[in-house]
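Table S5 (text form). Sequence records supplied for joint modeling of the two-component complex.
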Amino acid sequence: MDSFDAVYRRHYHELYRYVYRYLGQAECCEDVVQEAFMRLYRQREKSSLDNERAWLYRVATNLSLSQVGRQKRWQGIAPKLGQTSESPMPPDEVLARNQRAETTRRALGKLGKRDRVLLMLYQEEMSYREMAEVTGIHVNSVGKLLSRAMARCARILENPI
Amino acid sequence: MKTCPESRQLFDYLMDELPLAEREVVERHLGACATCRAALEAMAERRTLLNERFEELTPQDIPYRLWEAPSKTPTIGGRRWPLIASAACVVLALFVTQKMGLRCGTGEARAARFAQYQPEPVSDALEDWNEKRMTVTLIQEGSPQATVIHTALSPDKITQETISIDARGMRP
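The corresponding structure-token record, covering 333 residues in total, follows.
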């Protein structure tokens, strides 16, 4: 079993990115990500896990869903993306990107929880098997459900109201 | 494959989730079926659109927070005690009972008396757990004096006060 520090370094960024896409707020993100790793730390003291990455994502997903539930509604406001020193963008491009991000978040808000989670996990380049481990959905159903989620989301994005 | 594959199979092919044997069959069919090629292309465009839109949700700067492992301290009564304070408690009890040659009672009576003097938290607030107090009264047979040891344990120190009291009328 890898050391906890190695696991933390390996998965921190991708988990943060996943939770950030879900919550869109840096403050909540850090708390959720740290809590997920804290639970993994405690879990390791009790027993070993077959797939720690999937376990982390499952915990982070549940924590994110709880956070959204506490907020009572899906946050339709996209985070303001600014320029970075590495890839400065013209202001009008930044504005356009922010607007598109906001539209994407609103589209995700119109999807059911399961669809949203599957799309988010797909973005993490997870296999069907890993998605099944995270969500509890049978692996033979993941493809069909993901396909439908993509189709619904694409329809909403192409016809924003 | 003479009949067109199901939509699910095409999707699994696109996602690279088909077993190798099925993949080869679908590939051969796609070579001969324009309808399925068009359906696959539509799925691929949809996937590209979503990939691009999700990419824009990605934070541009991800702050990295160093991992701080929680401190491992033994718990007594649900409260965390520093190891040294717990060990000091045991050493203190052994020293008092052995070096001073005092009898604290037998078996169950000893356990019952000790249970009476379980440390109690100063308050329930986690920030205020830093001091535990314990009082042990030791009675020596035949002696008119009893020894009372008040011990206060905190994370970084132990304070102890020993006094003698009139033991007449007291029973171990």
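Note: The helical segments of chain A are 4-23, 26-46, 52-70, 91-109, 113-123, 128-135, 139-158.
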